[in-house]
Amino acid sequence: MAEFKPIETQEELDAFAGKIRKEATERTESRFADYEDLKSSNAALKEQLATAEKEAAATAEKYKDYDQNISNLQDKVNKYEIDAMRTRVALAAGLPYEAAGRLKGETEDEIKKDAEAFSGMMKLKKQPLADPEPIVSKKGAKRAAMKDMLHKMTGGNE
């Protein structure tokens, strides 16, 4: 360490104070040397933030109904799937295609139960494909009656 030397004159005091002031100024300036760079960088970042906020607001506006649209579309898909299930169950239960819309339920089991109940009510007699009584002209009425009587008498064996 240097030996202490007392300041005896005003010039020495001014020189010493100037030296201390200069060192303090240099230390302060060195600490804040990049202040202008930071200031300009901060301004650029603020501009980027403002631009990003505008873009985010525009995107939010563009997609504001996105969740609602997805929900609506999912509801439509679910409805179509249930309708397809109703049709499949109705046809499997022997019901006509038109009866599929009358079936109630949200699950396949509920729809099957309703289809079974509905098909029980709709047991239809099978209609013959042709008229069992042949159309006979007046001339052949006697002949047809005789054939019928013969058929009955022989038990269906001619």
Question: How would you sum up this structure, described in words?
Answer:
The protein has 158 residues and is mainly alpha-helical. 66% of the residues lie in helices and 0% in strands. The protein has 5 helices and no strands. The chain has helices at 10-31, 35-62, 66-92, 108-121, 141-154.
Briefly characterize the structure.
With 158 residues, the chain is an all-alpha fold. Helix content is 66%, strand content 0%.
Give the low-confidence spans: none
- Counting H and I runs of at least 4 residues, what is the number of helices? 5
Indicate the proportion of strand residues: under 5%
What Rg is obtained from the alpha carbons, in whole angstroms?
Answer: 51 Å
- Terminal-residue CA separation: 147 Å
Helix content: 55-70%
User: How many E-type strands?
Assistant: 0
Main structural class: mainly alpha
Average pLDDT across residues? 84
| H/E element sequence | HHHHH
Shape: rod-shaped
Major β-sheet annotation: none
List keywords for this structure.
single chain, 158 residues, mainly alpha, 5 helices, 66% helix
Present the secondary structure layout.
Elements: H1 10-31, H2 35-62, H3 66-92, H4 108-121, H5 141-154
